[in-house]
Specification:
single chain, 141 residues, alpha+beta, Pnp Oxidase, Chain A
């Protein structure tokens, strides 16, 4: 399977989900994880929001490295590693619109001041354990 079709398969899988586990790292090296709502753009950027009072917000301000796990039902999952940064003010409206189109219930969080982030992928693995042998697809960026 070529990269175009790999990315398409991963994008279609991610678009079936709105929940992910996000892992970040505190400046002292302590790992931290949380469940988040997310959306995904055509270029495989993951878009999510965070309040300034949260650990993930503080962690990402110090260390932009991030990992996500999406799926886990039906024995199919995506692991995603990349860099997460605050969406620039000039682009906030565009990213909010994309995020809320997938997760309209999060409008309340945006209205209460949640900050938009975008994650750019470095590595993604799609795993389908329903197949024998399991189907594993990796993409490096």
């Amino acid at each position: 399977m070529d990269d175009f079709h790999k990315k398409r398969l991963i994008l279609e899988f991610l678009r079936k989900h709105i929940l992910a586990v996000i892992a970040t790292c505190h400046r002292n090296g302590t790992p931290e994880a949380a469940t988040i709502d997310f959306s995904v753009l055509d270029n495989l950027e993951i878009v999510f929001s965070a309040f300034q009072e949260t650990r993930k917000f503080t962690n990402l301000a110090d260390r932009p490295g991030v990992a996500f796990v999406v799926g886990w039902d039906d024995n199919i999952t995506v692991q995603y590693e990349g860099e997460a940064t605050r969406v620039p003010a000039a682009d906030t409206e565009q990213y909010q619109k994309a995020f809320l189109s997938s997760v309209p219930a999060d409008r309340e969080f945006i209205e209460r001041g949640a900050v938009m982030f975008k994650a750019t992928p470095r590595w993604i693995r799609y795993s389908d354990f329903n197949k024998e042998p399991p189907e594993l697809i990796e993409i490096k960026f």
